[in-house]
Design a protein that fits this description.
Shape: globular
Strand order of the largest sheet: 1-2
Number of domains: 1
Distance between the termini: 25 Å
Order of helices and strands: HHHHHHHEEHHHH
Helix content: 55-70%
Number of strands: 2
Largest sheet: 2 strands, antiparallel
Length: about 270
């Protein structure tokens, strides 16, 4: 079932357009740094843009910082929001369920493929940024925003962890868009809902009045992976980020399974 669903998604133009955009932006960022000048001073512990030209390995860190907050959200919401609603809008959902496949198994297959494509988007973004960065700025030990040197091997290991963490941080958005996808026949509505969750959460997280509750927002710990490149910094926020996404994903997916199990597909 998963193989069939993955084959279907791989053959869709939408998949290539989404991944193509994700791949194009890091190239444009690299070109902008090549022709726009080389910054020499970091402006903060997490300012990866200030050191992006020091080593090609710095470029994917800058690209992740730039794209995590919005473009990546749009892409993963697209994959998840269209998973079920797309079938409903095309009129093929009822025919899928005619086959001896349970609703739970169908949802599991579609969610697995949506999650896989979401991870692929983060991986493509990182790999393209790394290739473009190395081509433009060379293969050198990276310079952290704090001005410390880090070997290529250590930097790549931390970059790999960052990719996994950023991908997992999209779990709440993926689960919410997927939940909406089981509730509506409009792919656009489900995708827009997933994007809105990320955007609204980031806006509220930036408002000082929400200091007492901001730690529960799904986007609050999205940038916690920065601590991997600040020696001596605690990784406790990354652990909290993992757990809070687990809570949101569990809640949204539980509702999705419950709703889809009782939904009248012919309505």
């Amino acid at each position: 079932m998963i193989r069939v669903e993955l084959t279907k998604q791989v053959r869709r133009l939408r998949t290539y357009v989404a991944l193509g955009i994700v791949a194009l932006v890091p190239v444009l960022i690299t070109i902008a740094f090549v022709f726009g000048g080389h910054p020499h001073h970091a402006h903060g512990e997490a300012d990866f843009f200030a050191v992006a030209t020091r080593s090609g390995i710095d470029m994917p860190l800058a690209a992740l910082t730039a794209m995590e907050g919005f473009l990546l959200v749009v892409v993963v919401a697209l994959f998840a929001g269209d998973a079920v609603a797309g079938e409903a809008s095309w009129g093929t959902l009822r025919y899928l369920l005619v086959r001896p496949v349970s609703r739970g198994r169908l949802l599991a297959a579609k969610l697995s493929v949506a999650a896989l494509l979401s991870f692929a988007a983060t991986l493509v973004l990182t790999l393209v940024a790394l290739i473009a960065g190395v081509a433009a700025f060379g293969w050198h030990p990276i310079v952290t925003p704090a001005g410390l040197l880090m070997s290529q091997g250590a930097a790549l290991a931390r970059l790999g962890l960052s990719v996994v963490y950023v991908s997992w941080c999209m779990a709440g958005v993926v689960a919410f868009a997927f939940m909406l996808s089981t509730m509506t026949d409009s792919s656009f509505g489900a995708v827009a809902g997933g994007v809105a969750l990320g955007v609204v959460s980031e806006i509220l997280d930036a408002i000082p009045a929400f200091d007492s509750v901001r730690y529960g927002f799904p986007t609050h710990y999205w940038q916690a992976w920065n601590a991997l490149f600040v020696p001596g910094t605690s990784l406790a926020d990354m652990v909290r980020g993992v757990l809070i996404q687990l809570a949101y994903a569990g809640a949204f997916l539980g509702i999705a399974w419950w709703w889809f199990g009782r939904k009248d597909i012919k309505s």
